[in-house]
Amino acid sequence: MDPTDWQIVRSTPLFGTMPQEVAVSVIGNQTVTVHRKGEMLFQQGESANSFFVVLDGWVKLYRVTPDGAEAVVGVFRRGETFAEGAMFIGGRYPVSAEVVTSSRLLRIDGQTLRRRIREQPDLALSMLASSSYHLKALVEQIEHIKLLSAPQRIADFLLRLCPVREGGCTIELPYEKALIANRLGMKPESLSRALGKLRPLGVSVDRENVTIVDIALLKQFIESTERGDEGF
């Protein structure tokens, strides 16, 4: 890893709370791997022997329901870890993982982490920090689906991608719209209708590029108690 990669690793809740020398020992001599869009990292039910740090790109975790539908559990980006919890819940991945954009990942051996925790029980606090981060993200996701209208959910998603906190900006959608819709708990056609609802607020879409005229206006819309029309 180069210094930038190491900085990303140390910014995660899991490795950020570890002493430097312990983090180095857990990571060991693992190398960064490059993956193309569509590559599977692991399948639901497989033996869980590794977890990952996203250094660049996006990865989705999902489950397949008995009727064959895909339910997206989470989408992880640069600076986030995933699958570390599987090391301690029966030893099998409860979800599948697929790379949804070209990505660089750090794959870390789970057995090494378990061994270091046995040697230094205080490292369990790092696992709790990481688990708390994932739990918070899941609670926010459920809260948004339950309390926000579809246009508000999309507005919140877009604002989280903005590199600035005021004024305007143009962003590129990080992955396909069908996955965005699934992640936000709506159908693709509902996503298109909801995006149309944002036009009066200064949001325009040109293929994969989204322009936001006024970030503050979009924030105000998200925080409002108004709801969209039925079905949105």
Task: Count structural domains.
Answer: 2
Q: What are the secondary-structure elements, in order, as H or E?
A: HHHEEEEEEEEHHHEHHEEH
Q: Which strand order does the major sheet show?
A: 1-8-3-6
CATH topology of the largest domain: Jelly Rolls
Proportion of residues in extended strands: 15-25%
- The overall strand count is 11
Overall geometry comes to globular
What would your notes on this structure say?
The strands form 3 sheets. Strands 1-8-3-6 form a 4-stranded antiparallel β-sheet. The protein has a 4-stranded antiparallel β-sheet with strand order 2-7-4-5. The protein has a 3-stranded antiparallel β-sheet with strand order 9-11-10, with no helix packed on it. Helix 6 crosses helix 8. It has 232 residues and is α+β, with helices and mostly antiparallel strands. It folds into 2 domains: 143 residues, Jelly Rolls, CATH 2.60.120; 76 residues, Arc Repressor Mutant, subunit A (Orthogonal Bundle), CATH 1.10.10. The longest helix has 24 residues. It has 9 helices and 11 strands. A hairpin with a 2-residue loop joins strand 10 and strand 11.
Question: What distinguishing features does this structure have?
Answer:
four-stranded antiparallel β-sheet; Arc Repressor Mutant, subunit A; alpha+beta; disordered C terminus; 9 helices; Jelly Rolls; 232 residues; 22% strand; 2 domains; single chain
